[in-house]
Amino acid sequence: MSVSEPAPRIAEASRPKPPPKTDSSGAVGPDPAMGAGLTLAMAAAAGISVANIYYNQPMLGVIERDLGSPSLTGMIPTATQLGYAVGLFLLVPLGDLTDRRRLIAGQFVLLAIAAALVALAPSAWLIIAASLALGACATVAQRVVPFAAALAAPERRGKTIGLVMSGLLCGILLSRTVAGFVAGHLGWREMFWLSVPVALAAAALMAWLLPRHHGHLDLSYGAALKSLASLWRQQPDLRRGTAVQAALFASFSVFWTVLALHLQEPHFGLGAQAAGLFGLVGVVGVLAAPISGRIADRSGPGPVIAVGAALVLVSWVVFGLWGSLAGLLIGVVVLDFGLQSALISNQHIVYALVPEARNRLNTVFMTGMFIGGSIGSAGAAFAWAHGGWTVVSLYGGALAAIALLLELTARWSRR
C-alpha cells in the first residue's frame, strides 16, 4: 500500500499480522502490513512522545512566576533534554534485544507516570528531577522511528522515515502551541496532567497495531551498551552525522529556549500563548520531512544535509538583522525546514549502515543530537543573561556555521 492510498479500515487493522521477516543476523525485514494506517499511527505516537520534552519551553515565564526561582526555572528545559539523552543511551538499545512492541507500549505507560510526577512536584528542584525522568521516558519516540525504518521496504525507507519524522516534528512544534494555550487558560501543571491520558492512549494504540514479534540479537544488555563504542569507532558516517546534527539541534534549541523570554520584552509584550503559536508557524517545516525523504531515496541524502545546515544558518541571519515579529515568523519557518531536511537525510544514511543494529545506531545518533540540544539550551540561557537577543543570535548562528563546516569538510575529504 502506498502512502497516497486510504488508510486501512479498523476491521482490517485489527486482523492478526504475520511477524516481520528477519535475516540471519536478526535484523527486521520489510513488513507487508506496513501501509499508510500503521505509518500514520507510528507518526502520531512519535509526536505524542516527544511533545513531553517541549511542553515546558513556552511555559517558562508562567512557571517562573509560580515558583519564584528564576535561576532554577531556566534549568528545567536543560534537565528534560539531558534526561532524554540519558534515556537514549540506556533504554533505546533494548530495541535490538527484545520485543519492540512490548517495549514501546510499556514505555508509554512510564511516560504517563513521569508526566504525573512533574504535575505533582511542589518545588523547582523536584520539578527538575521529575523532568529528568520525563525526558528519559519520552525516548519511546526513538524506538518508533527505527522500527518504522525496519518495517519499510528499502525503496520506500526514506519516504517512511520522513512521514514518521513529520509526526515527531509536529509533536515538537505543536507541543508549544498546546502548552502555551493551556498555561494561559488553566495553568502549567494542568498541561502535564493532560499529557497523562494521551500517553496511555498511545500505549494502547501501539499495543494494538504494532507487529507482535520481530527478530532480535543473542546479545546481553551489557554487550549491547559496549557495542555502542565499537559502532562509533567503525562508522565514520555515524560520527559525521551525529556531530552535524548535534550542532544543528543545539542551534534549534537556542531559539526555542529563549523565544518565550524574548517575546516578553517590552517591544513585543507577548506571553506564553504567543510563544506557543510560533509552533503553528514552524509546522511549515514538517513539509521538509517527506520531501527530503523522497529526494534522499532518489538522489542521495548528502546534498540535502548541506542545504539544510545552510538554511539553519540563514535563519539566524534573519533573526539577528530583522528584529520585528515578521522576522521571527519567517526565520522560524526557515529554521525548522533546514533542521528537518538535514535530520531526515542523516537518518537515511545512519539507519542503512548496520541494519541489525538500527536501535543502537539510533542511540548513538540521537544521544549526540540531544546532548547538543542541552548544550544549546544551557548556552542560550547564558547568552540571554549576558547580552540579550543579539548575543543569542550570534550564538545560534555560530552553531549552525559549525554544522555546515563539518558537513562540507566531510564531503570534501571523500572526494
Automatic annotation (TrEMBL):
Keyword line: Membrane, Transmembrane, Transmembrane helix
Organism: Rhodopseudomonas palustris
Lineage: Bacteria, Pseudomonadati, Pseudomonadota, Alphaproteobacteria, Hyphomicrobiales
Molecular function per GO: transmembrane transporter activity
Start and end residues of each stretch annotated as Disordered: 1-29
Any Pfam family: MFS_1
InterPro entries, per the entry: MFS (IPR011701), MFS_dom (IPR020846), MFS_trans_sf (IPR036259)
TM stretches of this protein: 33-55, 104-121, 163-186, 192-210, 243-264, 270-291, 361-385, 391-410
This protein's name: MFS transporter
